[in-house]
Amino acid sequence: NVRPEYPYRPYNPTDRNHDYPKKKPYLYPEKTTTAKTTHIGVVTPSDKPDTCDTSYDAVALIRGELFIFKNRYHWRIGANGRYPGYPIEITRMWPSLPKGLTHVDAVYERPDKKIAFFVGKELYLCDSQHLVRGYPKPLTNLGLPESLEKLDAAMVWGYNGKTYFYSGTMYWKYDEDEGRVELDYPRDMSMWKGVGYNIDSVFQWKDGKTYFFKGKGFWKFNDLQMRVEHERQLPSAPMWMH
């Protein structure tokens, strides 16, 4: 058997045209279980997720930077690596999202550069950091079924430039111009061979490739063969949390 090739982001330090994150030493932050003591002596546990050991709620490429979401927090990874001080609350970057936000289910940047946040049965659409007038809207406005409790993931697929939504065992193709899912959907997730059901997130990276996330690992997906490039998941943190 041929061992699967470990995916990598093509980065040539002598090529000034590349804007891929530079390889940096992988620093392990303190465990999130560490309690912090306030000035009055009250111990409060941190609810921040562990940068080096967590699953992801959503992953998205926004304005050319990588955003990773977990619980009410997010990380931001740019051309020079992970921004210091992260993770921070999602609502600090997008204050127009609900004040008591505990998580997001799926996030993607639309072709018109607006950012779609899916939370439960609702869609919040932001233009930069501001909520677009008329939002949030129910998922049913997109042609999704009333019975759908949430989306698992959403992306614009690099293979054809079309938008896809995923939930449980099913996926939908979404028409951005019409504002509704296409009529001959949903279809079974088995079309995306090797990924399985109930994914956590999916996105297209700058290399034009598709990456599916589930638990603490990910698969690189071969868009032409419609199957994962490696059957065994690879750990997410060493690859994406630079």
Mean pLDDT: 83
Number of strands: 22
Helix/strand order, N-terminal first: EEEEEEEHEEEEEEEEEEEEEEEH
Class in CATH?
Mainly Beta
How does CATH name the architecture?
A: 4 Propeller
Q: Low-confidence segments, ≥5 residues, pLDDT <50?
A: 1-45
**End-to-end Cα distance:** 31 Å
Helical region count? 2
Q: Briefly note the CATH topology name.
A: Hemopexin
CATH superfamily: Hemopexin-like domain
Q: How much strand? A: 25-35%
**Global Rg:** 18 Å
Helicity level:
under 10%
Give a short summary of the structure:
It contains two helices and 22 strands. It is mainly β and 242 residues long.
Topology:
Elements: E1 35-37, E2 43-45, E3 58-62, E4 65-70, E5 73-78, E6 81-82, E7 88-89, H1 90-93, E8 106-109, E9 115-119, E10 122-127, E11 130-131, E12 137-138, E13 153-156, E14 163-167, E15 170-175, E16 180-181, E17 187-188, E18 201-204, E19 210-214, E20 217-222, E21 227-228, E22 234-235, H2 236-240
Antiparallel strand pairs: 1-2, 3-4, 4-5, 5-6, 5-7, 8-9, 9-10, 10-11, 10-12, 13-14, 14-15, 15-16, 15-17, 18-19, 19-20, 20-21, 20-22
